[in-house]
Amino acid sequence: KRRHKHSDELEKKIQNHLTDSMKPPGADGDIWELFAEEGEMKIYRKELVEDGLICDPLKAVHSIGNVTAREMCHYFWDTDVRMEWEGTIESFRVIEVPEEFTTIIYQTHRRVWPSAQRDCLYLSSMVKVDNPPSVGDKIPHDTWIVCNFSVDHPEANPVSGCVRALIEIALICQTFITPPKDGGPITRDCLQCDIIYVANVNPGGWAPASVLRSIYKREYPKFLRRFTAYVQDKTRKLDI
Ligand SMILES: O=S(=O)(CCO)c1ccc(-c2ccc(C3CCCC3)c([C@H]3C[C@H]3c3ccccn3)c2)cc1
After folding, report:
1. Which phi-psi region, left, alpha or beta, contains residue 140 (left: φ > 0; alpha: ψ -120 to 50)?
2. Is 166 in the pocket of ligand 1 (CB under 6 A)?
3. Ligand 1 in contact with 60 (CB < 6 A)?
């Protein structure tokens, strides 16, 4: 069962995401504030301050056509394409690959004036979920999750002056297939991918609340817009 040092922690986090993060906002009795809405994309936040630091949890739900859950999670997880859609990291390095679909990454974020630059050191794992909870009455064809969470690593060799931000992030995707009425073959037009993205970022040290909250308000919608468009573009059949 224990495949690498973080296997147990990873399993536990995935189980938590599948039970907690897949619930629609508000189902947990918590008060989520809808702060951005663009078509199917809805982004919610909660205000949370821990030890004086802004740790506002974020939850986004979205649904896009023509892609599968596996494609969404693959492009989110695959570091080979990271800089093609990530707009706020300055550099990153894969420190270790504990197993085939699990990497340990060190990355630095662009400095947010007037606070110090932040870096993140985290494990990133892509997993197919076998017995997914079905949300509502729709039955998913398949469910995939990418789980990113902060870990320690002796070889991080951090950029001096960076403050370590702590992250707990998950991208959970489900593929829904609507076969064509005429009984024809299933094409990309029959695909719908439901997305849940949860992010808990602890800035790790002081940063002005107003600055952080305005960054989150700007960066999360931008990230979801840019990333989903990127995947649809990468998977679009070539215009013949
Ligand atoms: O989804 S991922 O796993 C994709 C891999 O990169 C992810 C996303 C976001 C972060 C992150 C980490 C630190 C910060 C802050 C804290 C104080 C100063 C930097 C932010 C703030 C900058 C905000 C932000 C929000 C959304 C997207 C990017 N930037 C975001 C880390 C990982």
Report:
1. beta
2. no
3. no
